[in-house]
Structures are given as C-alpha cells and as structure tokens.
Amino acid sequence: MHKKQIAIIVLIAVVFAMESFYSPKEKKLKTDNLKESEIQKAGFSLEFKKEPVVVNPDTLTWKLLGEIKFLKKQDKTYGEVQFPVINTKLKQMQKKRIVMSGFIVPIDNKSYALSKNVFASCFFCGKSGPETIMGIKFRGGNPKLRTDQYVTLEGTFRYNDNNVDDWIYHIEDAVIVKGGK
C-alpha cells in the first residue's frame, strides 16, 4: 500500500477509537424556569443558557389610539380646525405609565416620534391620521435611533386635545425596553 492510503486508514482508526471513548455528559438543571445544559467535550466545558427576555406587553395599542373623533372648532391662528375628542379609556390613562411599540420617525435633528406605520406610510405622507403618531420625550436626552427602527417604549402617557400645534398623543419620560440597538 501507498503511504497516503496507510495514513488515511490510521487516521480513520484513530477517529473511531476516539469516538468509542468519548461520551458527552449532559446535565439539566431547572432553576427559576431557566434551562441550562453543560456539555463536556475534549476537556472543554461549553454552557448554553436560555434566559427568557421579559418585556411587559403593550399596555396601550394603536387600535385604542385610533378610536378617536374630531370636532370642528375655531382657532385664533388657523380658523376652523378639527380638534380631537379623546375617548374615555384614554382619558383614564392620562399621566399613567404605559408600554407602547411602534416605528421611529425622525422629526428634526433633535426629536423623534413613534408611529404605527413605517415612514413611507406615516401621518406626514397622507396615508394615516394624526392619531397614528406619538411625540416622544426620552428620559435623559435623545438616543441615536434609525428611521423605521421598531422599538418598544415605556413611559408616561399624555394626550393633548386643545393645542393644534402639538401632537395629540405623547409618551414622556420614555425609555426603550426593546429594540434599542
């Protein structure tokens, strides 16, 4: 036989011999609903931890924000304007902590809004109404975010039903709880 063939046969024999001596140890621990398994392999310990990501579900929905009516009133600056009539459920949430998800829409170099839709379909493009967007005031200043980045925010809900130069809905003291990177 040729040296290459002998080397291949020896290599295969060594692999089979190692396989017969190798037996992975698997240990499962259950601690606080966390699953952990440890595999011993060739003197190395590999650990795989599956930790649940806990994010509170949205406590405010775009559907509820969309349940709004408008009433025509006179405004000193703009004449006849449609003012929002806030529904009872939203009035009860005024100045309460909420969790809300949506798409980031840049307003200017300093501020963002949270939108039900991506930028191409947002309120400014005429595809949606003003109830599909919320002004955001972040706790501790604005983070750097991308257009259409999907985030979940936690903050204090505020509505505006009398200033036509302001958003109808706001989330203040906001922190990103999911999707911030």
Which strand-content bin applies to the residues? 35-45%
CA-CA gap between termini: 60 Å
Q: For this structure, what is the CATH class of the largest domain?
A: Mainly Beta
Strands side by side in the biggest sheet: 6-7-8-10-9
* Largest sheet report: 5 strands, mixed, barrel
* Second-tier CATH architecture of the largest domain: Beta Barrel
Total domain units: 2
CATH topology of the largest domain: OB fold (Dihydrolipoamide Acetyltransferase, E2P)
Our count of helices gives 3
Helix content: 10-25%
Q: Give the radius of gyration.
A: 29 Å
> On the 0-100 scale, what is the average pLDDT?
80
Order of helices and strands: HEEEHEEHEEEEE
Structural class of the secondary structure composition? alpha+beta
Shape: elongated
What features would you describe in this structure?
By secondary structure, this protein is an alpha+beta fold. The chain has 2 domains: 3-50, no CATH class; 62-178, OB fold (Dihydrolipoamide Acetyltransferase, E2P) (Beta Barrel), CATH 2.40.50. 16% of the residues lie in helices and 41% in strands. The chain has helices spanning 3-21, 62-66, 88-92, and strands at 26-31, 34-41, 44-50, 69-75, 79-85, 97-106, 112-115, 133-138, 150-159, 169-178. The protein has a 5-stranded mixed beta barrel with strand order 6-7-8-10-9. Strands 1-2-3 form a 3-stranded antiparallel beta sheet, with no helix packed on it. It starts with a helix and ends with a strand.
